[in-house]
Amino acid sequence: MLSIKDLHVNVGDKQILKGISLEIKAGEVHAIMGPNGSGKSTLSQVLAGRDGYEVISGSITYKGQDILALSPEERAREGVFLALQYPVEIPGVNNVYLLKAGLNAIRKHRSLPELDAFEFLTLIKEKMKLMHMDESFLNRGVNEGFSGGEKKRNEILQMAVLEPSLALLDETDSGLDIDALKIVAHGVNSLRSPERAILMVTHYQRLLDYITPDYVHVLAGGKIIKSGDKTLALELEKRGYDWLTQVPAINTDNTGAIGA
Amino acid sequence: MSTTPQDLEQLVAQKYRHGFVTDIESDTLAPGLDENVIRHISRIKKEPEFLLQWRLKAFRHWLTMPTPNWAHLKIAPIDYQAISYYSAPKARTDAPKSLDEVDPKLLETYDKLGIPLHERARLAGVAVDAVFDSVSVATTFKDRLAKAGVIFCSFSDAVQQHPQLIEQYLGSVVPHGDNYFAALNSAVFTDGSFVYIPKGVRCPMELSTYFRINAANTGQFERTLIIADEGATVSYLEGCTAPMRDENQLHAAVVELVALKDANIKYSTVQNWYPGDENGLGGIYNFVTKRGDCRGANSKISWTQVETGSAITWKYPSCILTGDHSVGEFYSVALTNHYQQADTGTKMIHIGRNTKSTIVSKGISAGHGQNCYRGLVKILAGAEGARNYTQCDSLLMGDRCGAHTFPYVEVKNSTASVEHEASTSKISDDQLFYCRSRGISQEDAVSMIVNGFCKAVFKELPMEFAVEAQNLLSVSLEGAVG
């Protein structure tokens, strides 16, 4: 599904990712953990195609296709979805209208008939039940006046409607109380399928109590310094990141300098 | 970082769609302005003596006035002697008595504009008065309106058929010497629309005027007068386009609205005059005076405008809230692209008790566009319990445009309540990326965000025109980005 090879990424003059390699197969759930400033969010933004990130070297192959040249909307239409850490408000634009426009753009790209207003309403009402959202969401502006929890639920609702092949969840657990976290996790779990890969970026192990990953990777200093299964997350919870980062961090910086 | 300057240049490089010239024989007066020209216009139009005298009074006053320069606008000097003050499509023998007699080429022009007088008007149930250069070409639905007692005709016809109404109301809201451009208009106006809704009548359909400047080097000085008698209700829409020409053309209109007791006037404008090219060459100077007088108690006047055209826009649709409990509203979207400039806003003059006004202004600047909101809220000493709410928001696209806000508030009554909210924002990269990461193209995303920004104004437009206005904005923003 997704193959990242030796990815180096700069933001401005600063090197953020210093050689990331990662293979994700359909049906797998991967978690990327790491301390603040390690490059976790950069990785998800680069995968979604956001401008302002300069890929210096390396490759990203998705479903056998090099996607680095594709725009964010082209990637979305190919089935890449990013749930943002900080979903943005768009005043005056109806939440449902945006989602319908997105879904129909994706369907059009795949030569599927576009949904009319009635069909879409039926679909979204069904998905809203999954996320425990009441119908007032239908009439609100995109994230306008939403609480932190509502914004994150809205992101997963969008994922449920757009049905991506590759879902990137960027700190989806941040700012959620325990009840909201359970709802969001339930939503994500119900979207797990053999055809779909999920990459979660998170700072805390807490989310992984509810969404069990197949693989856990630790990202520090722009590199994946350790990979393992879900037990790695538990170890991190106990011991923090220091035991992993202290020595390798120096090496990482050296390679980074040479690489640059 | 997603909206680079190049992207925005493409955004701004949208072509003007109404830039065709109709090849039609016109009777055009030689350029120049003096009392003889005014007498000539008045004679062509077979006007009564009072009107000629009123024109001359305005002209003599205009000669004493300096060109206004207080607005935040750069205006190249205008040579008023180089303008022709009268241009009319040549009549075949006499004035057309029905649509069948109207020059087919002219009707074709309106078809191109999407205003076919024949079918669409009838289907849409909209009565259209079309003003081509200086004269009113045809007014549809006259008969049906006449049954309801509504008078909707060209200004010239009204002068002939209802001179007493003209004499009573003309200049009663915008006096002949009100301001430089209003004085000029009063002296040389050639046509426009006239509406009278009798007591207690709800006008059975939307009324609409379509203006178009066709001939080169002419000015368009139309005059619109709408009177809603006691308890009457009317909704009126005007649309404007002009062909592409390298020279600037002057459009100095005056609109007067009179709402008597319990009357309600809704006046909507979709202005898409030629804005000039991407280097700021050509385009219409749109210097318009629009004012409504809520003369009777419980009357209401509501202005809604969508201004996307013109090289320079200078207009402040205003309400004089004379009657107790009268209501004034102003909803505006102004978009400036390329080198367009807009200095627009409103004046709400509270005179009566418990008068109420609402102002919602949305300015969008792109390219080198300059957008300026200028508003006056004035509460007079007698206006017990007056209330005003003002909201003005600016949206900037790119880093070479400008947004300016000049709100004036004068309150002379301590029971008044005045609120003002203002904001300035940019279309953020975050918003664009958010939409795009959901599969929406950058172009559609920009259009979606801008339309969301304008929503509070669009919902005030009559339904079919709200759709048109949204499309107009989307068209203006086409090719915006990447």
Describe this structure in words.
The complex is a heterodimer of chains A (about 260) and B (about 475). By secondary structure, chain A is an alpha/beta fold. Chain A is built from 9 helices and 12 strands. In chain A, the strands form 3 sheets. A 6-stranded mixed sheet of chain A has the order 6-9-10-3-11-12, with helices on both faces. In chain A, a hairpin with a 2-residue loop joins strand 4 (about 55-60) and strand 5 (about 65). In chain A, helix 5 (about 150-160) packs parallel to helix 6. The radius of gyration of chain A is 19 Å and the shape is globular. Chain B is α/β, with parallel strands linked by helices and about 475 residues long. Chain B has helices at about 5-10, 35-45, 50-65, 105-110, 120-125, 140-145, 155-160, 165-170, 180-190, 430-435, 440-455, 455-460, 465-475; strands at about 25-30, 85-90, 125-130, 135-140, 150-155, 195, 205-210, 225-230, 235-240, 250, 255-260, 265-270, 285-295, 300-305, 310-315, 320, 325-335, 340-350, 355-365, 370-380, 385-395, 400-410, 415-425. In chain B, the strands form 3 sheets. In chain B, strands 5, 6, 8, 10, 11, 13, 15, 16, 18, 20 and 22 form an 11-stranded mixed sheet that branches. The interface between A and B is medium-sized, with 34 and 26 residues.
Question: What is the H/E string of chain A?
Answer: EEEHEEHEEHHEHEHEHEEHH
Share of residues in helices of chain B: 10-25%
Number of strands of chain B: 23
Summed up, the helix count of chain B is 13
The computed structural class of chain B is alpha/beta
Number of helices of chain A: 9
Q: Tell me the β content of chain A.
A: 25-35%
Largest sheet of chain A: 6 strands, mixed
Estimate the global geometry of chain A from the Cα principal axes.
globular
Work out the number of β strands of chain A: 12
Mean pLDDT of chain B: 82
Average of pLDDT of chain A: 89
State the major sheet of chain B. Answer: 11 strands, mixed
Helix/strand class of chain A: alpha/beta
Whole-number radius of gyration of chain B?
Answer: 22 Å
Overall 3D geometry of chain B? globular
Query: How much of the sequence of chain B is in beta strands?
Result: 25-35%
Strand order of the largest sheet of chain A: 6-9-10-3-11-12
Q: Uncertain spans of chain B, ≥5 residues at pLDDT below 50?
A: 1-13, 91-97, 115-126
